[in-house]
Amino acid sequence: MALAAVASAAVVVGAAARQWWPDVVLVVGSVVVGLLVWRFGRGLGVGIVVVVAGLCQVPGLTQAPITSTDAYRYVWDGRVQLSGHSPYGYVPLDDSLARLRDPVLFPGLAPDQRSGVTGIPDDPAQLPVDDVRTRINRPGVPTIYPPVAEAYFTVVALFTPWSAGTLGLQIAAGLIAIALTWLLAVQNPRWAALWGWSPIVALEASNAAHVDVLAALFITAAVVTTARRPKLAAVLLGAAGGVKLLPLLLLPAFRHRRPVVALGTFIASYLPHVLAVGTLVLGFLPGYLNQEGFEDGSSRSAILALLLPPEARQLVAAILALALAALAFHRARRDPIALTCCWLYGAALLIATPTYPWYGLPLIALAALASRPEWIAVPLASYLAYASFGHDTRQGLIHLTAALTVAGALTIRHQLVAKSGLTAPPLPANTGERDETHRPSNLGRLR
């Protein structure tokens, strides 16, 4: 049961440098957890799932973040807001915020030293990602994170001493991961372990403190509450979009569940910041899209990159995304919303193939909620691709393997259900949906 904690600890020990073997440990650990859940998970209770999930979060707290330096930016953004300034209007190296520096975030730049930076650079996208004077990545650009994430950073910063560095955020992320385990376990303890015991969750929550775990909580809560309280579900989905923009991709799945309220919640979260800093509220988002290849398609869509040049790749990716949205919109009335959200989010990740594997955290939660463990192949592939950064063909093949794995699993399920004609019991009452296993065999279709 504690394999997630063991795998997480192994990654913590070995991931000081980006090498292959820590990612292999992560992949193997995730597969083993999945097999154990599938084979022995039927008798699990809510309590044991949640307790083991809590134990899985412990190893990550013993180390500073290892998969990225994002948590240092989170700490800084929260600190800036507590000082009465907007992280959209200042960059970390700005000398006007020098009094907020400390040895944890700025080991090479004391408050009484000058960085030479004032204001926001004219072309921040051209600046280097790292600066040896600080642990904050992209210290020459304003923040990219949406307002709900910024509010979360501020609350955590309020209760975290400066000397604790990222520990407050790591603890908060670990607690969120455990809370999400409980929420999933109330629906189905067996599949909740797929999230709560996952080495990926152990690594990216209590260690890396990635804010994506908060987005996963909001998405899951939105799906769970959508049948009985559709307006609340829409608000939660809008809040998830205010943590990371990707959850807004799920709007087509909520076609009959007040998507306008979700968009309104998302927009409303920006209003205080717009009033404070105007168009600066976009932060580094435009520069990020350019740096990461979203604008020309050059460094995204790794699967399409195996076959298409950058200019065609971007167009095809857009067409596929629109087709997926239309399909989700069409099937939203007949299929369980958890299932629709799962394949929609997973397919979007396969099209875009983000460089950063923690973007897949919400997909793990949705896979657990929809009882579709094959989709875990997508975030697992992202870690292997992350270790292959700079090798475009290898990255594309890794993501293609994940896509084929998902397609193969769904095809096999369809064939088994079609041959047996099985139907299954309803989903737990508080989901408002019927379980896939009691639905007709069309649930096995590839989607």
TrEMBL record:
Residues 423-447 are annotated as: Disordered. It is a multi-pass membrane protein. Keywords: Cell membrane, Membrane, Transferase, Transmembrane, Transmembrane helix. Pfam families: GT87. GO terms for molecular function: hexosyltransferase activity. InterPro entries: GT87. It is found in: Cell membrane. The chain crosses the membrane at residues 27-56, 168-186, 207-227, 233-254, 261-285, 312-330, 337-357. GO terms for cellular component: plasma membrane. It comes from the Bacteria. Belongs to the glycosyltransferase 87 family. This is DUF2029 domain-containing protein. It comes from Kribbella soli.
